[in-house]
Amino acid sequence: MRIGIGYDAHRLVEDRPLVLGGCVIPFEKGLLGHSDADVLVHAIMDALLGAAAMGDIGRHFPDSDNKYKNICSLHMLKEVEGLLRRAGFNIGNIDAVIVAEAPKLAGFLPKMADNISASLNIPVGEVNIKATTEERMGFTGTGEGMAAHAVALLGRIN
Q1: The domain spanning residue 142 has which CATH number?
Q2: Which of 11, 14, 72, 157 is 20 to 30 A from 142, comparing alpha carbons?
Q3: In the chain, what are the helix, strand and coil shares in percent, each to the nearest 5?
Q4: 49-71 residue pLDDT tens
């Protein structure tokens, strides 16, 4: 068994869609980044890559490469799943939390889990997504940005 952790944060800006877990969330701001800036999927990718000792998303999907400009992060997540499979790993489970003061995300969490499980070819019951606030403290609490934390469990394919 191998365990990895992931973290990502992005600044909130106007004139960008808010994408979390592959869902476009109605909100007046979106996350700034080279790709779609999906902090949830980025944290999950880093947790998976970390568990496999395969670096991080910056190593595999550099922001200096224009082929990743505005790309849907779920596409990169599928690539990570392929890397893991070719390296002899299977995914046990993923637990993740989005840290954001607004908008309310509870109604979107099941669809996010569906999107992530489909991209990784694992049962939706192996993906747990939560959301929390920081009670108006820090950059997430003031609405400057959003963050996500993730933990992933990998096993060796026999």
Answers
A1: 3.30.1330.50
A2: 72
A3: 35, 30, 35
A4: 999 999 999 999 998 999 989 99
